[in-house]
Design a protein that fits this description.
single chain; 340 residues; ABC transporter involved in vitamin B12 uptake, BtuC; two-stranded antiparallel ribbon; 15 helices
Amino acid sequence: MPSIESNAIEPTRDELAGLSLPRRLARLAPTYGLVILMFGLIVLFSILLPDTFPTKLNLRAIISDKAIIALLSLAAMIPMVAGRIDLTVGYGIVLWHVLAISLQTMYGLPWPIAVLVVVALGAFVGLLNGILVEVARIDSFIATLGTGTVLYALALWHTGGRQIVGMLPEGFYALNGTFVFGLPITGFYVLVITVVLWLVLEYTPIGRFLYAIGANQRAAELNGIPTRKFVIGAFITSGVLTAVTGVLLASKLRIGQASVGLEYLLPALVGAFLGSTTIKPGRVNVWGTIVGVVILAVGISGIQQSGGSFWVEPMFNGVTLLIAIGIAGYAQRKKGAAKR
């Protein structure tokens, strides 16, 4: 059974055409509620913290800190489009960032080869997840939880509970440490990958097929869509993007440690789920996912600069997710009532 069902509820042009301006705005408010909230938080914290929040230094810090979460959210989003969930985005990044370093320091591989090996392994894990879900017919939540736990165990075994450190090439450090126009290059990675995924999902048959599978797999099969191939492909793409993110995390941290990485799982999933509650509510979408990540980044940064304690980040993640689900539920009920 699919773990997630896609059911788009964004208003259509025909639906909006027959409404007055106040009712049209009321209909659009749930759809773009998180976008409005995002800009509202930016304006609010810019007013409250004029010396620290609306600065280039703070923008650098947010991009550097949240780019990893944004990439993982996009990786988690891809199987969600097809109605599946991939928990290995949180567990896999633990092993991938460790391997990206140990392949160079312990086995002497050049950093480009080490990166290619990690990405290939990420694709293999994605393929394995796809086979477990589509061939073995295991629920994606259970299958990826099991696969992810195995990856985490392998990371613990490989490190022996110790940090993996060593001198790494400057080229490897530059993957994360380079600045473009004064901003971290990781932000541009996120932008490029976001645009590519948006174009693929919104303007190609691949995207339409994945959304059709997520909405109703049986109907997609009856219409001739090879659902198994596309779902497995979604898991492979997610695995590759997770591995790339692990490489960037290794370049950022410069050490490999099995205790680092799992803390990214919840924010990544929150960002992906938030993405299904805005712009195209009820349907996982790329720009909604980015909006969700930005809300988390801006809100947490502003609260911490205001003197928030260490527990603010998980609290904000949870509360924001509940609010987003409430907005989506309200929009769903309103549309259902209108149809009736």
